[in-house]
């Protein structure tokens, strides 16, 4: 059973969440006559956020980028220090990042389901006063300000890392990509998996209902592909954006033809979009699954981006016909079923509300594309979470069509046990991060299976 501290915090958490959801409903009712603002919000005033730090003070550098001029959509880039190692010495970064895992108590982990054969602070004033700032001053030689952060060398010999798109949780109406808890979790994943993490700041409900958050997730995937093409264009023009002169004018003209944004130097130097992993937490897992399906439909239009795997951490699935866990654990810790239904009412348009909506229930018929085209999918579930059975059932359907779709169930765990602020430093959360890293490396490693940590 969960500890007494977890139980007490759960009571307080539920009270606070219920209060906030009711406030969202009241504020929506009071402004029902006015149309919703398409620009939207990606964080709430009550959220404790962590400012970006473009220095490798703890082994990971971060920066925030607003990527859509029409909405509040943004990303926080997490670049691990291992990216600075030369390609030939890539082992050093990995061994350093996994040293801290050697003594973890892995007995708390889980039971395995399926084909998992390889699984043996305070509020910051600096949050985003202007959504237009991008901290990419290193790409602009005309700026007289010194960029006080990491700037890649122009030698073109930087180490390339896989990219992980991360979608935070929060029941559609709260949470943010720059919250203290999400920042800590993404730093951990960047180090353990040895990847560049792009934490997506999608628009929240009820200001922006379905499909806004899901479409934001796919926009980031498209933006990643655009960045790869911009970088290749700039490279083929001889890096004219930095050199100036006649060549620079031509290069800038071609780059501008792609759109308003310039090359993001961290991604241009270090990102390998052909090894892209999606990771979603709670409702973020629903977004990840949506983005995977859209990526399949887009096909080669996303080149060079390729989604090679996805990780669904305690997905926010639900349905009209209740599962056994939905009946027995409806009043489980932190997120009980009645409050989650209220969150779904705030997220789905009123005329579309249904617990069997394709965004809510992954097992509804005719939910394209066919499951056999889905990427390998690791599902994380908690023993004391009423959503666990439907997530397991979805994984079983994937395995029926020969998709690698293992499930890890963590004993005595609750919803968001590896990502909630007060639980992030527990041995179980640490073990979960290690498990994810081991599985993900099957699909992002250039050498196949990697267990020499």
Automatic annotation (TrEMBL):
GO molecular function: hydrolase activity
Disordered: annotated segments: 26-57, 112-147
Name recorded for this polypeptide: Alpha/beta hydrolase fold-3 domain-containing protein
PANTHER family noted in UniProt: ARYLACETAMIDE DEACETYLASE (PTHR23024), CARBOXYLESTERASE 11-RELATED (PTHR23024:SF639)
Family designation: Belongs to the 'GDXG' lipolytic enzyme family.
Composition bias type Low complexity, residue spans: 129-143
InterPro entries in UniProt: AB_hydrolase_3, AB_hydrolase_fold, Carboxylest/Gibb_receptor
Domain Alpha/beta hydrolase fold-3: 164-418
Tree of life domain: Eukaryota
Pfam families the record matches: Abhydrolase_3
